[in-house]
Amino acid sequence: xxxxxxxxxxxxxxxxxxxxxxxxxxxxxxxxxxxxxTNENWQTLTKRIKLFASKLAQDDQIHILxxxxxxxxxxxxxxxRLQIAPGFDRSRIEG
Length: 95
Prior knowledge:
single chain; 95 residues; alpha+beta; Arc Repressor Mutant, subunit A; 4 helices; 12% strand
């Protein structure tokens, strides 16, 4: 069975939208982003989500949190959460 293709743009938009909805003090699990994108085999998206989260964090759109602290987007491992950054450009999801 062939799984449906999830576009890179949709992954980026979903990360930003979910982080924005969680608010300035909330955060999102990457697994929840994956499950929002697809119900079946969502685990296959986790590496892409981590990669895109890293890029968004480098662009100051989101923060990557490890144990409640902002992690280095180029060097983080283990369990992490995503949080909207104060520099978030809302036009990236409204366009």
